Amino acid sequence: MLRISNLKLGIDEDVSIIKKSILKKLRIKENELIKYFIYKESIDARKRGRIDFVYTVDVEVKNEKKILQNKIKDVIEIKQTKYIGVEVGNEKLKNRPVIIGSGPAGLFAALLLAQKGYNPLMLERGLDVDARSKDIDEFWNNRKFKSNSNVQFGEGGAGTFSDGKLTTRIKDIRCRKVLDELVNFGSPEEILYSYKPHVGTDILKGVVKNIRNEIIRLGGEVRFDAKVTDIILDNNSVKGIIINDKETVEADNVILAIGHSARDTYKMLNKRGVRIIQKPFAIGARIEHPQELINKSQYKEFYNHPRLGAADYRLIEHTSNLRTAYTFCMCPGGTVIASASNEGEVVTNGMSEHARDKDNANSAFLVNVLPSDFGSDDPLAGVKFQEKYERLAYELGGKNYNAPVQLVGDFLNDRVSTSLGNVEPSYKPGYEFIDLRECLPEFVTSTMKEALQKLDNKINGFAMHDAVLTGVETRSSAPIRIVRDEETLQSINTKNLYPCGEGAGYAGGIVTAAVDGIKCAEKIIQKYTNNLH
Known about the structure:
The protein has about 525 residues and is α+β, with helices and mostly antiparallel strands. The protein has helices spanning about 20-25, 65-70, 105-115, 130-140, 175-185, 200-215, 265-270, 290-300, 380-395, 410, 440-455, 510-525; strands at about 1-10, 35-45, 50-60, 75, 100, 120-125, 220-225, 230-235, 240-245, 245-250, 255, 275-280, 280-290, 315-320, 325-330, 335-340, 350, 360-370, 405, 430-435, 470-475, 480, 495-500. The strands form 6 sheets. Strands 14-15-18-13-21-19-20 form a 7-stranded mixed beta sheet. The protein starts with a strand and ends in a 6-residue tail after the last helix.
């Protein structure tokens, strides 16, 4: 198959023209073209007064060798476009594999194992996505928090209540497997080729439910409200797990796909001697602007063109104190959401539906935090660092899950806001005007201030007075890494325990976590036969 890149169409040209562009590029007749499909679509808005859609297209033709001999620019041969998988092993498996956690890593590990006939058991401490959605609505609207059913815990993991971004910088054929499966289970087909694919929380809820049903149909088991409270070890090898402090399950292969908020699980693993180390992460606040401001900045006079939708951005600034401020998990046309996983915390995140049609754009605005900032050698010191500022935000907000809010103009001038401008905070259940210096470290707020003024040169209005900062954002990534062997993917000192995904410190988003889950499942598949005895 051939891959053609840099095929450009004007914003008002129909995508059907691509076929003519392929024929012209390859210098072939229509009957020589067998089939083609769009591999990637992106937007080029760099030239003033013009916006192009840029396509990469995979093409099957009758005389591929002849075309390659012509050495046409932007045309290459590609070999593998589909995930093939690994060969099944021959060692006997005593117990079915157990997956702890139903986020992207756990879901895709369980799905692959089920597809290969291993009848996995997937355990989720939270509730199914329908019950979870009701509990989250109760929290956001009526302040009724549930520790086992919230934005962090429950079917699909934290990603279920997000923008559903599927962008990744890793080059791995497993990424295609992830996208193909997401489409199979209800995601829009455009995620297969969009340069910045996203699903949206409204669609993701149905997708994760469909994946769960497929795992069960193939012989797997999925259990909710099933928190793993301990692991049973013998000679530094996993032999079993304990669920909800009372039920023992034999398990000699455990994929540990916990999320980055499973702090009690971190403590249990650390107590059991599983090797954990500190890891850098980042904290800050959510920043909200009018979505129209971002659209105009990115698309200029084309900002309301029907083919473009809500614009996004990704910004980074290195400041004079040698820190870095950057935007993360930008949600066009979305909302800022309450994302606590324990009582007495205020934690923010962002979420969008597929349409991305809300009034505000929001993004995490973060500053890097290093292990040297933790003030302790304790492997879990980063967790304690997060907790400190989440509790401060809760207390300052009024101890009722209101979030601290400050207008950007007031933040830059060290004064508490007294009224809103033209940006209404989208965070529920509510907010309180607070000086963010009271609930974030000084090095974070000073870095944010310097960066804000510089980033205004990149997006005009980024530092507008009325933009809203909502604190605190602390869960961009795990503050720990559960150390594993790079070859076997098992814990470096606990045999047959596979630390996996974002919570173990090995991923940073839906796709990378799902790919890591697939990799861990592959290790079990390669070693063991799927004939349980």
